[in-house]
Each structure stands twice: as C-alpha cells, then as structure tokens.
Amino acid sequence: MKVALAILxxxxxxxxxxxxxxxxxxxxxxxxxxxxxxxxxxxxxVAACWKPSSDAIHMQQFSSTMTRQLWERPGAWLQxxxxxEFHYSKKLYLIYHGYSNTFFTAKxxxxxNLASYSNNWxxxxxxxxxxxxxxxxxxxxxxxxxxxxxxxxxxxGFLAWPMVVYxxxxxTKESLVVASAAGLVAMLLRWLYGSKPVSVFGIVMxxxxxxxxxxxxxxxxxxxxxxxxxxxxxxxxxxxxxxRRWVLVGALAATIGAGAWIGGEVSLVFRTNRITLQLLxxxxxxxxxxxxxxxxVFAEFRPTTESALRNAPQxxxxxxxxxxxxxxxxxxxxxxxxxxxxxxxxxxxVVATLRGRPGxxxxxxxxxxxxxxxxxxxxxxxxxxxxxxxxxxxxALLPFVLWLALQNDYAAQVLRRLGM
Length: 420
What we know:
Blueprint: H1 2-25, H2 34-50, H3 54-72, H4 74-82, E1 85-87, E2 93-95, H5 101-116, H6 120-145, H7 151-160, H8 162-167, H9 173-193, H10 200-216, H11 218-239, H12 245-266, H13 272-289, H14 305-321, H15 330-354, H16 363-383, H17 387-393, H18 398-405, H19 409-417
Antiparallel strand pairs: 1-2
Helix pairs in contact: 1-5, 2-6, 3-4, 3-5, 5-6, 6-7, 6-9, 7-18, 9-10, 9-11, 10-11, 11-12, 11-16, 12-16, 14-16, 16-18
C-alpha cells in the first residue's frame, strides 16, 4: 500500500512538472534559461543532500516518525499537525512551549514522505523544485508585466546567484521562505500591474503562500506584508491619478505604521520593546556561540529602539558585505568573494541612480521592495552576528536586493547582450 501510493504520487508529480516544463521552454527570450537554471538547482540539491545539515537530518528523522504515526493512528497525527505537541509513545514525544518553525517544517515533510517514502533525497528534491517553480513564476511575471525592464535581473537574483541557489536546495527552511515570498510577490504583481483577473483560486493561493511565509519566518513575513500592503495602496493611488512621489512614499509609511500598530495590538511579540529585547537575546546568544570566529560586533547594543536605530546602518552594511574574502575558512572565503561581486553590483546601481539612470521598474515597486530589503538587512544584522548563520538567512534577502540592483540602465544593457 505504501509503495503503491508513493509510486502513484511520484508519477503524478513527474507528469505535472514535465507538462509545466514543456510550456516554460517555449517562453520567448526566457525559455532558453529554464534548463540551465534547473541544472544549477539540481546540482545544489545533490550537494545539499549528499552532506545534509544537522537541522535537515533532525527534521527528516522527526518527520519520518510523524509519517509512521499517520499510517498507524491518523487521528493522533492530525492532532499533532494542528498543535505544538507530538506524542508517539511514552518514550518518544516532543512538546514545544511556543511556536517552532522546525516542527512546522517537519509537519510538511511528514506529508511529503508519502511520496518520497521517507527519503531525504526525495524530500530535498520536492522542496528544491518548489522553490525553483516559485522563483520562475516571479521571473515570468516580471517579464510579462514589466516588459521594459530586464527579466534577467530577477532571474539572476532568484535562480542563478550561487548562495541563493545553494541555501534554497535540499531540506532547508530557506527553500520554503524564498518560494513563498517569490510566489506571493508574483501573484500580487499580476493583479496590480498585469491583466490577470482576481480569481478564487488566486486568492486561495495567496493566502496559502502568506500563511507559509508567516509560519516559516514571522518577522520576515511582517516586513514583507508591510511592503506589499504599501505597494497595494500606492498602486491604488496611482490608478486614481496620484503621481506625486512624496504622496506615494507617505502612503507606504502610513501602511507600515498602521501595520506596526496593529501587529503590536494583536500580539505582544510585535511590540517594539519585545522586538528589541529579542534582537538583543539573539545577538548575545549567537555572539557566545561564535567566540573566536569572525562575527558582527557592535560597540554598544541595548534593548531599546534608540540603540537599535543607532546600530541599524552598521547592521545593514555588514549584513550585505560580511564575510570579507580574507575571513574564516574556505566557505567564508567563497562567500566573501561573492560579496565583492555583490558590492560591485550595488556600487554600479548607486552610480546609475545618481546619474538619473535607475531603470524602468515602477517607482512604487522600487520603494516597496527597497523598504523590505533595508529593513530585513537591519533585522538580520542586528540579530545574527554569526556570519555562517547570517549567510544562510540572507538567502531570503539577496534575491530582492539583486532584482533591484540590476534594474539600472548599465546593468540592463549587459543583461540584454547576454540575452537576458
């Protein structure tokens, strides 16, 4: 029964993916890049599953036990899926006092195990392809709704940048974070700037992607939701004839402020004093764990809004620039060399903007995504001094940074010469 179900599910998924892939191969201009991008993702999947992280091993083992419970006692499995406790036997149980995205990921894997037969290579492939398809959906959407912009910008950011591809392959939380963010942005852009009508199916997909984003990284989700909420309001104002940029920026600021107030009223977790305290706790814990290693160090960091704002510029800068290529071991040096390329791309973008050639991406989209990138960079820099952990968490940030940074006319000219 289990083997038959696994064969049936894999056959169905393979047919769906093959039909989807055949359509993408025929997309003008972009179709030629589908297979190379897919090849990169599959190479990263092999690397990730060949030597899985301790987190991946833990989640896979945990999910396998949950799947056994699904076959033996479906009611108990459903209870675990809806709660924060897992009870398999008197000696095998877990109780989470609060929310755990590790437990949530294991819940997803427990369902995927029905197709993968509880194999980490199979589950890693499913998550890798999910992230790939979501990223490609955003790339295609950008090409459709903003034909005057280089589609290669989003393509490089979401499907070709080495560290993004690597950290979103295999059994990783980042694969779900980036996939849900990319899919959510793509759906909203189609509605706001494209000709795709709002449908029941689309609404359900947006709600599912938003829920997945929130479940995986709720602070990341809060920033993304604020940015997208501001984008919706700015687009509505544009459709009403409002063109003054200061009014649009004010609308974004009002949306962010309203969102912050509502979040603080709904949950104490989103109140400013709680956020700064949690940032300091994370910073202190990871600093202790990073003793003797390259890390982000602030001259003074206190659990206050003033201290967080004072350290914000350094946090954002080091979140984007560290590690340097001379720091740490081999992986640090590889990440450092990649960071040099990133800084060069950002420098070109700044020069192009100062010269009045920032590109043709709509102002509202740029402002909304720029807020998300800067805010997330500050959040990561303040809370994640460990450069290894920071490099992994940045997988959610870098695609959007690169998408924006490669919009300028200089970068667009190079991308067009490359057929992107």
